[in-house]
Amino acid sequence: MVNLATRFFRLDLKSPVIAASSTMTGHAAQIEKLAEAGAGAIVLKSIFEEEIHHQLQEEMNRRPRTRSDMEYMDYFDCVLREDSLRHYVHLIGEAKKAVSIPIVASIHCVSAGEWMAYAKAMQDAGADALELNLFLVPSDFNKTGVDNDLFYLETIRKVQQAVQIPVAIKISSYFSNLAGFVQKLSETGIAGITIFNRFCTPDIDISTQKVIVSDVLSSPHDFLIPLRWTGILAGNLGCDLAATTGIHSAETALKFLLAGASAVQIASVLYNEGPAAITRMNRGIEAWMAEKGYQTLADFNGSLRSRKNAFAAAYERVQFMKYFGEKTY
Ligand SMILES: Cc1cc2nc3c(=O)[nH]c(=O)nc-3n(C[C@H](O)[C@H](O)[C@H](O)COP(=O)(O)O)c2cc1C
To answer: What gap in Å lies between CA 261 and CA 138, rounded to an integer?
Structure first.
């Protein structure tokens, strides 16, 4: 009998397959199904700073700008924040009642602002860990890379000061020196890093000539960029590493475990297939381990990270020269 136990968020998980933050993890009844299907942990749907800003902006646009209105907006901002936090705290409580696996609260931050009070309230509501979904689109021409880096470091520092539960982060790949900066983040005392979040991306519809939102769900081929960076980063960080994006099968999950991830976070496949995807992936990992004679994840986890073996160059190779050089039409 093989054992799928792993550690991420500084927590013991019975499976490396984590239900990632999404609307699938926003209701206690659904969370119960994900746990029954064998999820190692649940990351709750994020509470979104941007959403609060958006609602605030809508209210501001509706009202004329008098002094008393500006005072009202301060009040409205406060009510909005309290309301979204109250809902979130309730969700944590319901999720904790429904399942025994770890429940990880998630905050999506676009500024290093007010998250300490939120983080504390989530800890007090019983969250086992906190994941900060950190992302700035580095599109401000007036900012430097250092300004953007500071947002990450400051947010982590402030939230860590507010809570005792493990704090992990989920990030994008938009950094000028990815390896060096992720290593720096990993040394801030955080419990784990998940690479790389998938975001809404713009596309263009040429028939209507409008800018639209591209596919929301990932495809099974989207895993290759996180895989490269898992191989490069694993073994070089001061915290555990997990991966997300495009992980739809046991085979893909195994690639990440071989490259050095402690766990994988999945969302799109849960929309496509429901919680059964978790059972399918756990069984697939178990079957492969049994076939290879492995008893625990530690028997093979990280065996193909770049530092450890002869494949280092493969993780860093970027040009197809050889292939294009030989191909003729
Ligand atoms: C519909 C949808 C909603 C999501 N909502 C959140 C969210 O609230 N917070 C977050 O950190 N990530 C969110 N994500 C990102 C997922 O957690 C996941 O990291 C990402 O989709 C990549 O994994 P996948 O390829 O398995 O979908 C969402 C993804 C989808 C598809």
So the answer is: 27
